[in-house]
Write a structure and sequence with these properties.
homodimer, mainly alpha, Arc Repressor Mutant, subunit A, two-stranded antiparallel ribbon, DNA-binding
Chain lengths: ~150, ~150
DNA sequence: TAACTGTACTATTTTATATAGTACAGTTAT
DNA sequence: ATAACTGTACTATATAAAATAGTACAGTTA
């Protein structure tokens, strides 16, 4: 599920943070789902456990996940809201990009086309933007299922 | 004209590359215009000359500028094409961002609004995105003017 | 009890970025 | 010719962020 490019200029721990938020937004992992354990994911991605922990610490700081020592890390109830809270920031980013494209000679019609295309895509199609392969299996379980005991 | 934020996460040399390309796309500097000298710009921006040179070397590598040892660096004849050559790449970036915004719960109408806004902006307004102040004067001269001799 | 979980901590390595300083050759104007 | 400019090359060093390595402790689960 998770995928990482060690050669990318964006730090690995940040790639994991981003991917986690995207998976949540896309509904691939939901509230109270358990994330892979620090050690498991570190083995799966072949990176240092501390790097994973750094990602989880950041996600916890943002309120996107909550961690229960001894049990695991779980998606917050209001994770989507916490992530979506950057609407204004992202819209600013979008505007800058649009102006760049405009200056680069891309027409309004082309962008409108692109906009329509993005919105007509299904969720599954959307996610294919981020995960090119689907090889590694990861245990993501509803916390509620296991907890009633 | 050029402005740099040393605290930014994007490297200074890259900020200069980006700004130069944007100035060219916006028509603020044109083909065969002379860029500020390495040493001048380094003094003006209070950064090391080597950093400026790194920017110019990169721009040269991209074919956006050409350098004449002993004379200076000048904007290439086909600079705009060279810069705009990343249309597909930028459109891909846009699509990813759009999908993110869609997932974050931003409506089609909101994005359409943003798109219209970006395209109704004048060039001057657009540039205000990148340069907040307009203090330092920089010598940018047509090379053609000085060359006929 | 054994195997898992998150967390904390220090030390070290690696990499990209930036700086410092020097030097050389071509250009321009006086 | 001279002085002042231009780009370029080179080595060495400094700095900060990122990642690794290793160990340890406490809570949880089967």
């Amino acid at each position: 599920m998770f995928q990482v490019d060690p050669m990318s200029r964006t730090p690995v721990y940040e790639q994991i943070v981003d991917q986690t938020e995207r998976f949540i937004l896309a509904g691939i992992i939901n509230a109270n789902d358990k994330l892979p354990s620090v050690r498991n994911l570190s083995v799966e991605l072949a990176i240092n456990p501390n790097t994973i922990q750094k990602s989880y610490t950041e996600l916890d700081r943002r309120g996107v996940i909550y961690s229960v020592p001894g049990k695991g890390c779980f998606v917050s109830e209001d994770a989507v809201e916490k992530i979506g809270g950057n609407r204004r920031m992202k819209l600013e980013e979008l505007k800058k990009l649009l102006i760049e494209l405009k200056l680069a000679g891309i027409t309004y019609r082309e962008l409108e086309e692109c906009l329509k295309a993005a919105y007509s895509d299904t969720l599954v199609d959307s996610m294919s933007q981020w995960e090119k392969k689907e090889d590694a299996a990861v245990e993501i379980t509803k916390r509620g299922e296991e907890e009633q005991k």
